[in-house]
Automatic annotation (TrEMBL):
It is a multi-pass membrane protein. This is Membrane protein. It comes from the Bacteria. NCBIfam families: integ_memb_HG. The chain crosses the membrane at residues 12-33, 39-57, 69-86. InterPro entries: DUF3817_TM. It is found in: Cell membrane. Pfam families: DUF3817. Residues 6-92 form the DUF3817 domain.
Amino acid sequence: MKQNVLTRYRVMAYVTAIWLLVFTAAIIAKYGFETGDTMLISQIHGVLFIVYVVFAFDLGSKAKWPFGKLLWVLAAGCIPFASFFVEPKVSREARALVTDPAPAAAKA
């Protein structure tokens, strides 16, 4: 597995988690205090979440995760603050599977 697969996942995990927190705050403001609109924020988060799902599936297929683990990683993207705890663990496990292309380039 290449490093860029893990990097794409990590970036999208954090970006999606931050937008989920922004969306959660907007929902609280809208329904709790009857201020603001959530349409634009929800659409941005929705698009980012779809990209996150694609990158998580890509990482999971290359890391050969069981389906249950993949579902847990995807569920972490739906729960506020969960990605901040799940992403480091997933990255630590996946980092061991990353192949280093530098020695192969040195031989050529």
